[in-house]
Predict the structure.
Amino acid sequence: LNGDVILESTVGEENMDSATIGAGATVKRGYTADAAIVSEPSAPPYPLAIVPVSSGLWWVGVTVTGKASHAATRGETFRAGGLGAEVAVNAIDKGVYLFNAIRKLEDEWGLTKKHDLFKPGHFTILGGVITGGPEGVQVPFFISDYCTIEYCIWYHPEEDPEAVKNEFETYIHHAVQLDEWLREHPPKLEWRVNWPAYSIDRDHAICKALAKAHEEAAENSAFAGPPKFAGFYAVCDAAFLSRDGVASVVYGPGSLLQAHAIDEYIEIDELMVATKTYALVTMDWCEVSS
């Protein structure tokens, strides 16, 4: 080869710290390149697609507080004629109220956030972890005084992360105005991590070289023909490589439909075509001495 090839296997992705200890650190330490192919799974929706763009991701914790008391007083807290918040407020009830309100924003996004490389409805707001109860003891004999919901906000790649943050905060502010307790005790939002989107022009030289290599490698296989283009369902290290000046694209065997699930796997036919594609695009990009 007339050029250099760097094979990177980095840490930090699954604990959301790739920006500082994983791929985000490699360029800062001098491991740079003209282009990068990130071998994350291309699918869905298409196996071995060329993936020039991803969504962005915010991780935010939403915590509501309540007012603890004995579990036997619950009827007083919300039934007509009861003493209400004078006695107690169940934070889990307030968390459910917010959860349902945020679902309405998610439904709205399904109609309004659109991108030609993503399926309609892709951009979502996942309440992925819920914790709550009485502080210091996990038994149901108290009315709960806290509830925290951890959210993954999958946002449009062309949106400013700060604008997404502001939209979410503004929506919650309006939602809590409809609840007597939350108006006076608004939820606490903790913006934990922003994983940026990445985007590269579909006509970029690395995309063209990858498409040519795939078409040659896929001859006489189930993946024959020009590759399709699609958006990456999740986030990946291409974001940090692109941010630091390395033009990056995703292409790889497997599907995120099997990722983080029981019995993860990739199809052998996809693995073989992808391996040939990586070899061919490397020889084409770096050129081979005669």
